[in-house]
């Protein structure tokens, strides 16, 4: 339950190793460093996950968040990057010394995504292991009644599956990690949805190039849309996305105009309970966004690590039960 003595909660989006920006944001929100942790007399921080990877001050980001958690001034929710860090470092049961195998495939792309963290923490060092132990204790969702927080997508039927992760001393054990990294299991499906976000496969395997130039056959789902009707409303494709040839583009366009199937619509967030999430990049204009993704859903990731802003949604208890407002999003001045 929420703490009735607090004036409010500040939901901080994906930090991605920008510890210096985190310190600036906390300062701008009047959190003060006291006895080794940032604190505010009447507010509490909720991190929506993805503290690590990409940025240049990752250990600072982790230390700030953990000190706040231990001081009782923050709650930290797990992101897909913390989950991946665990899977990266955990040996598969079929692994042998001659041919080591890990729960997360050590492909060039996966390594590229994680290398900055490994460099900064010292790959395999005691510090590395200590942070992994801490990651195992992070909740994959937070439901305090008056609000909810999750890294990528709130999908109710998955939550009981995720709860089994913590059966062993409230920490995610290797058995869950193995199940969650094995395709076709309920654990894998639940982690994919909740930490990475549900996706829809495009018709007839139409392919398109994403911003990074990678060929994709799936689109992320904009599960926060208030009244989605067509696939166009729900498929999170960059404006003007084309197939690989004119015929594919025609198939894609026809599909986008079709009514969305229940398979996709089931992810829609219809509850009138404020939900704060990260993972999906939103764009910060001069004064922030002029509207939120949904009346009770606020995305807090504004690409701090890619030249955007580190942002918090500042939620007040006085606004409990009310729809969320874009003007509650706050970025530290640059
Ligand atoms: Mn993420």
Could you walk me through the main structural features you see in this protein, from its secondary elements to its overall organization?
- With 334 residues, this protein is α/β, with parallel strands linked by helices.
- It folds into 2 domains: 8-158 and 268-331, Metallo-dependent phosphatases (Purple Acid Phosphatase, chain A, domain 2, 4-Layer Sandwich); 199-265, no CATH class.
- Helix content is 30%, strand content 17%.
- Strands 1, 4, 5, 15, 16 and 17 form a 6-stranded mixed β-sheet that branches.
- A hairpin with a 2-residue loop joins strand 2 (32-34) and strand 3 (37-39).
- The protein is globular, with a radius of gyration of 20 Å.
- The chain starts with 7 loop residues before the first strand and ends with a strand.
- Bound molecules: manganese (II) ion.
- Manganese (II) ion binds next to helix 3.
Overview features:
single chain, 334 residues, alpha/beta, Purple Acid Phosphatase, chain A, domain 2, 11 helices, 17 strands, 30% helix, globular, binds manganese (II) ion
Give me the number of helical elements.
11
Mean pLDDT: 95
Using the 3D structure, state the CATH architecture of the largest domain: 4-Layer Sandwich
Strand content: 15-25%
CATH superfamily of the largest domain: Metallo-dependent phosphatases
What is the 3D form? globular
- Quaternary structure: single chain
Bound molecules: manganese (II) ion
Q: Structural class of the secondary elements?
A: alpha/beta
Q: List low-pLDDT spans.
A: none
């Amino acid at each position: 339950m929420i703490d009735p003595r607090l004036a409010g909660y500040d939901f901080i989006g994906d930090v991605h190793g920008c510890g210096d920006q985190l310190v600036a944001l906390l300062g701008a929100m009047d959190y003060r460093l006291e006895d080794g942790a940032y604190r505010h007399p009447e507010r509490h921080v909720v991190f929506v996950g993805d503290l690590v990877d990409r940025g240049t001050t990752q250990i600072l980001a982790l230390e700030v968040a953990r000190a706040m958690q231990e001081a009782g001034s923050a709650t930290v929710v797990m992101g897909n990057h913390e989950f991946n860090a665990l899977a990266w470092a955990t040996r598969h049961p079929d692994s042998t010394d001659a041919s080591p195998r890990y729960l997360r495939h050590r492909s060039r792309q996966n390594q590229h995504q994680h290398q900055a963290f490994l460099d900064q923490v010292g790959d395999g060092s005691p510090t590395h292991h200590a942070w992994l132990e801490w990651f195992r204790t992070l909740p994959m969702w937070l439901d305090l009644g008056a609000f909810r927080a999750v890294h990528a997508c709130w999908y109710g039927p998955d939550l009981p599956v995720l709860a089994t992760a913590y059966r062993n001393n409230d920490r995610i054990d290797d058995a869950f990690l193995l199940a969650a990294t094995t395709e076709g299991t309920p654990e894998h499906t639940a982690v994919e949805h909740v930490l990475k976000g549900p996706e829809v496969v495009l018709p007839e395997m139409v392919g398109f190039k994403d911003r990074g130039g990678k060929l994709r056959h799936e689109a992320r789902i904009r599960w926060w849309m208030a009244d989605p009707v067509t696939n166009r409303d729900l498929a999170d494709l960059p404006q003007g996305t084309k197939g690989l040839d004119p015929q594919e583009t025609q198939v894609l366009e026809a599909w986008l105009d079709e009514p969305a199937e229940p398979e996709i619509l089931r992810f829609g967030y219809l509850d009138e309970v404020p939900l704060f999430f990260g993972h999906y990049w939103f764009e910060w204009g001069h004064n922030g966004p002029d509207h939120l993704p949904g009346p009770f859903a606020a995305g807090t990731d504004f690409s701090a690590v890619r030249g955007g802003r580190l942002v918090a949604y500042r939620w007040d208890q006085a606004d409990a039960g009310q729809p969320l407002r874009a003007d509650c999003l706050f970025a530290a001045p640059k």
